[in-house]
Every structure is written in C-alpha cells, then in structure tokens.
Design a protein that fits this description.
716 residues; eight-stranded parallel barrel; six-stranded antiparallel β-sheet
C-alpha cells in the first residue's frame, strides 16, 4: 500500500472512530425517504452485521459486539427464534442464550443500533425455520398463508415480542437502539405456491406489523410486493446487480443479507467467499444509491443442541468476518473495516449529493456524487478481467481486475476493493488433552427394542415426526417375521423419507444408510441373517433436523415408507402393512443421561474386558479438567461417527464426521465448547455415538489465530 494511502486511511479510521464511537443509540425518531433511513432528522448510511444471540453464549456477547463495532459496523441484526421462546403453547423462555432483552441491552451499552427480525418465520438454517412444532397440531393449520389459525398464532407471538421490547424501552421511538423491525422472511420464495392467498397474507402481515405502532420502520426481505409503508429489501451476494430496487420511490434501497459465505451441510466443503468479492459488491451497492448493508453473517456461531436444520452442520457461517469462535478472520474482517471507513468518510456527499453515472469504457463506469456544501465522491468500477487505466477528471487511475476504486473528493484513491492490505491469519488448533486412556471411560449401551417390548402398535408405517413431535431425532419401528419356508440369501429392502436408517435383525446390526440435502429418499438393501423361527426386525429412523423453508411445511412426511423381505429369487414379502410396534427416542434420552444427577439411572460399564468401541448406539462418559486460559476450546471428534455431545449437561450439538466430502474429509471435525460451559476441573463429557467410533481418539483443543499482527495493530 502506498505511503500516502496508508496515512490517508489511518486518518479516516481515526476520524470515523471519533464520529461513530459515542451515543449512537440515543435515537428518538426513525423515518425514511427514497434515499436513506433518517434518524433524529439526520440521514444515515449504515453498515450492519448479523449476530444471532442463541448461536453464542451471553458471556460471549460483549466481546462479539465490541469486535463488530471495531470493524466499522453500526447495527447488529438478529432474528427472533419463535421455537426457542415458545417451545410449548403459551409457555415462554427468555433465559440464558434466549435472553433477547439482555442481548439488545448489551448492544445498546456499546453504542450500536439493532435491526430486529421478528419473522416469526425466519428460515436461517434453523430447525423448522423457527416455527414451533406444536403449530402443526393446531386444527386447520397451514403455515405462512391467509390461514386463520396461523395468522392468530403469528400475530400473538409478534405482539408478545413487540410488547416485550416496548416494556423495556428498546425501540428508537423510546430512546432505545431498535431502529428497524422485520416481518416475514423471503416470502417471494413461496408466495406463488399459495396463489391469491399468498398476496392477501403478505398484505395482512404488513398491516398487522405496522398496527403494532413500534415507532420505527418495518421491512420485508425478498418481498417485492411488501405493502406500504413496509420497505422491501434485498438478500443475496450481488444485490448491486440483482436488486430491482424498492417498490416505491419513497423507500430507501436496503440490503438485509449480504452473504459473507454460505451455509454448509454435511458432505460438503465450506464455501469460501473472498474479501475482495464482498467488498466489490458492497461498494457497488453503495454506488447505486444503497444506504444500508447487512453482512449475513458477521458472526455465525454454533447450532447448539438440535437447533440446526436438515443436514446442516453444527458450526454456522464459520467463514464470516468473526469465525464460529468469535476470532477475527483475516483479511475479511480488516478489508471490510477499511471499506466502511472509506465510504463513511464521504457519507455526506453520498447522502446529500446528486448522482451522475458516466461511462469510462466498455466495462468501466463512474458513479459520482456531488454536493456543493460537502464535496464529491466517486466510485470507479472496472468489470473487466484485466488491469485497466482509467482517465477521470484529468487524472489517471490504474484499476485491478474486477475492482472498484473509491475517490475521496473525486481525486484521491483511498480504497480499492481488489487490493487487500491486511495480512491473512491462520487458525490453529492445539491439542491439550487426548482422552486415550480406556480406564477413564465408562460405557452404556442402548438396548435394541423388540416388537413385544413396545406398547404402541399399528398396522402401518407411521409418520416419524407425528410420533416424535420433534422432541428427539429417533423413532424405533419394530416388527416380527417368521418365514413360511427356509429363506435363502435373505435381505431387507427399505425406503425412508427420514435422514438416517439403522436396521437390526435379531439384535445385530444388518446395515445402515442415510440421505443428504439433495437425496430425499433413503433406499437401502441389506443382507439379513434370518432363522426359521420368529425374527426380530428393529429399525431405527433418525432425523438430522427439520426443514427450514418451503411451502406447506406442515404437510411434509418423514420416516419409513416401505419395508420388504426377499428370499433368493422369490417375490419380495411386503411388511409395510404388517403390524409394527413403536418406541419414541432412546432410553438414554428419556432418563437425560447427559445430566450429572441422572448418571446413576443406568449401569455404566468400566474397562474390565476392553473398552467397547466401534459399536452402534453407545453412550460414553469421562471426567476431564478444563484447559488453562480463556481462549476458545474445541473437541476433535475425528475418530467418531455420528451422534451428539454434551459438556456438563449442555449440548454442544450434533456431530457427523463419518459423512465425508468428495475430497474424503469430514465437513466438520472440531466442535466448539464455549468457555461458559466449562469448570476449571471435574467436567463431565457425555457422547452418544450412533454408528460406531473410537472415543480414545477424542481430544480437547484450544483454538487461536496466528499472523496478521501488523494488520491488527493498524486496524485497532
């Protein structure tokens, strides 16, 4: 970076800190026009970052918010998670990670604004899109359309949240930090499926929200027909190119989800979006009269427990500017911080000036903002794949391929999106304890249920989630089969709309199969060791989260749909309509085996005849000491298969390291243990292993970053 540009950028960073570090949330009024939001009578050009409060811990919130503010962010944007807050009809939970009020007050204390995306359907790669599962059992229920039962419960919860915010004085109209609220979410994706009821529903939703009189604007993302005065906004990676704009000239151009990476499901590699690409499209959006950009995510965090949607990994948007652990991901964090400073240094001409668009070549443009009182700023855009020399106002500028240069006063190049001056850092995982002593482990094996041991029976294969009510991932289907004659080369064929299937014949595992985000039907044929007498058929159906989106989610079915037994070349015997016995969940789940107080409810096996490993349906426990320091901690599960992990009774999420990517690696091997879950000594680790693994390979690790020291000192 040229010395002049370094000095100029340092002055910008210092100046922007002085301007934006104090009192930002003492707002009393928020309005808007066709150019921007207007807070307390002043136009605002705002950068926002998504942080979801339940995907981290309250102990992490202050540091996450502080780092976000230091990155040049003005607004924290979060969804509200209906199924966390109302897990049972009329029973609310705002404690611990669910303490929305505490989260917003922490944001306020650090001088930032809030965009509250109430939804209450949110998608967000979150289980069931945030909808509580009990909604499905409400008579006449159809989600997200002009349906009386859904509108009743949606309005009730939305009102609950708005009233809670009002009672705490958190809306900007009350002097609080909330400057925006969102109703619904990406409705354009499903509206056509509901025909005329979609249009009437979205009109009702907007009117209902506005009628709650929050005193701040409401938005709808990806909803071109958002009714006035609700603002329609853009989601995506390239809204400067794809967004048709607000549906009224009196509404500002806003980008509610600028994806800093992309979601990741098991069996896939992480999506790496470069700092240069994010900066290019953010700058282009501002150049095209955008005035609000939210990075989704700025910090992704962790899908604790069973909160992730179908097939989504436990870590969420780890490639964001703040990674899963809250560590800076460079150069993404620093490059965007410099972008924010460069743009804010010319906020006045951007918001007050007249825009002129000039052609500077076949693939080059200039977006110029001139204001008589505040000056001039220009965005020089090079869409070409090669370096281009550009003449602008009697000055020559060399622009890198696919780059935007920002000219302060329309003459000084203070920032270029394709030139990264922040050193890349590297995340380091350091093992501090390997749990490789078999004498320290204790084991409990789940019993395989038989048909005679079940109480609920039906002459059909029942739908999985109708039975489990999403209280567990697991449902046992059991039956009994006696062949009419000796069966040669017997096999069992299964089709399932669930995610995972494990087949046991006479208590022995015969085979397993699973689907993926793209493979919706699991088809599995396994050899079966049948006797001439009665044979016990026990099939464990498993889910890896419920879907987070789509029309008519309440109609979706899961679980077994076909079971057949074949003997040699004879016609298969269809057991689908036979009598089946059902058992919901696992025994260890029912007694809450992950809790200290419940450990004595089963008989744990010690290492008398060798540690039981590489066996399915096994619970493991071990006591360990926490690592020194206060940095992030992770558990390496590379030697295991699939299951769930608890530390001191807190679930750190599902793991599935046996589901490999095309390159032969797990999508996620290290699983975050928040420091708040740990004690200095005597911690309880409980692992439920579904497929079979070796716990002697599990290790406790500290997580840190190295590199970018120079950049961090410059940007602090």
């Amino acid at each position: 970076m040229e010395a002049g540009r370094v000095f100029g950028l340092c002055l910008i960073l210092v100046g922007m800190f002085l301007v934006f570090s104090g009192g930002a949330t003492a707002a009393k009024g928020v309005t808007y026009d066709g150019r921007s939001l207007i807070i307390d009578g002043q136009r605002k050009l705002l950068f926002s970052g998504s942080i979801h409060y339940p995907r981290s811990t309250p102990e992490m919130w202050p540091s996450l918010i502080k780092k976000t503010k230091e990155g040049g962010i003005d607004v924290i944007q979060t969804y509200v998670f209906w199924n966390l807050h109302e897990p049972k009809l009329g029973q609310y939970d705002f404690s611990g990670r669910n303490d929305l009020v505490k989260f917003i007050k922490e944001i306020r204390s650090q001088g930032l604004y809030v965009c509250l995306r109430i939804g209450p359907f949110i998608e967000a790669e979150w289980n069931y899109g945030g909808l509580p599962f009990w909604l499905r059992d409400v008579p006449g229920m159809v989600y997200r359309t002009d349906n009386g039962p859904f509108k009743f419960h949606m309005q009730k919860f939305t009102t609950k949240i708005v009233d809670l915010m009002k009672s705490e004085g958190l809306y900007a109209s009350q002097g609080g930090p909330i400057i925006l609220s969102q109703i619904e979410n990406e409705y354009a994706n499903v509206e056509a499926a509901f025909h005329e009821k979609g249009a009437s529903y979205i009109k009702w939703a907007g009117q209902m929200a506005v009628g709650l009189k929050t005193g701040v604007p409401w938005i709808m993302c990806k909803s071109p027909d958002a009714p006035d005065p609700v603002i329609n906004t853009c989601n995506g990676m390239r809204c400067g190119e794809t967004f048709a704009g607000p549906n009224s000239p009196n509404k500002p151009k806003m980008w509610t989800e600028d994806w800093t990476s992309f979601f990741q499901v098991y069996g896939t590699e992480p999506y790496i979006r470069s700092a240069e690409d994010i900066a290019f499209h953010a700058a282009l959006f501002i150049a095209k009269n955008g005035s609000y950009i939210n990075y989704y995510m700025y910090h992704g965090g962790t899908n604790f427990g069973r909160t992730s949607s179908s097939y989504f990994i436990t870590g969420y948007y780890d490639q964001a500017p703040l990674d899963e652990y809250g560590l800076l991901r460079q150069p993404k964090y620093g490059h965007l911080k410099e972008l924010h400073a460069a743009i804010k240094s010319s906020a006045n001409p951007l918001l007050q000036g007249k825009q002129t668009i000039l052609s500077l070549g076949p693939m080059q443009q200039a977006y110029v903002f001139d204001d008589a009182s505040s000056g001039c700023v220009a965005f020089l855009v090079n869409n070409d794949a090669k370096v281009i020399q550009i003449q602008f106002r009697n000055n020559a500028f060399s622009l890198s391929p696919k780059s935007i240069g920002i000219l302060q006063n329309c003459k000084n190049l203070i920032y270029e999106t394709a030139k990264v001056n922040v050193e890349k850092n590297k995340r380091v995982t350091t093992p501090v304890q390997v749990f490789n002593d078999p004498d320290n482990w204790e084991v409990f094996r789940e019993t395989i249920p038989s048909f005679s041991g079940t109480y609920l029976k039906a002459n059909a294969l029942l739908e999985h989630t109708n039975m489990t009510k999403d209280k567990t991932d697991y449902l046992w289907y059991t039956s009994s089969f006696k062949p009419d004659s000796p069966c040669t080369n017997p096999s069992i064929y299964i089709e399932s709309l669930g995610h995972v299937v494990h087949v046991f014949v006479n208590n022995a595992l015969a085979g397993s199969g699973h689907g993926s985000r793209d493979i919706k039907v699991v088809k599995l044929q396994v050899p079966a060791s049948l006797t001439n007498g009665q044979n016990s058929i026990s099939i464990l159906s498993g889910m890896v989260g419920l879907p987070d989106s789509g029309a008519y989610m309440e109609r979706k079915s899961y679980g077994l749909t076909k079971v057949q037994i074949s003997c040699g070349g004879t016609k298969p015997i269809d057991l689908s309509g036979s009598q089946w016995g059902y058992l919901v969940g696992l025994f260890g789940e029912k007694v809450r085996l992950q809790q200290w107080r419940n450990l004595n409810r089963v008989k744990w096996s010690m290492n008398n005849a060798g540690l039981i490993k590489n066996r399915p349906l096994v619970w493991y426990k071990i006591i360990f000491d926490g690592p020194n320091g206060d940095g992030p901690v992770g558990l390496n599960m590379s030697n295991m298969g699939k299951g769930e992990i608890w530390v001191n009774g807190e679930s750190i999420g599902r793991y599935w390291v046996s589901f490999l990517t095309p390159s032969g690696h797990p999508s996620q091997s290290i699983y975050h243990i928040p420091r708040a879950f740990l004690k200095p000594s005597g911690n309880l680790l409980v692992v439920f292993e579904e497929e079979g693994g070796d716990p002697l390979g599990i290790s406790l690790n500290t997580i840190s970053v190295i590199g970018s020291n120079r950049a961090q000192s410059q940007l602090s």
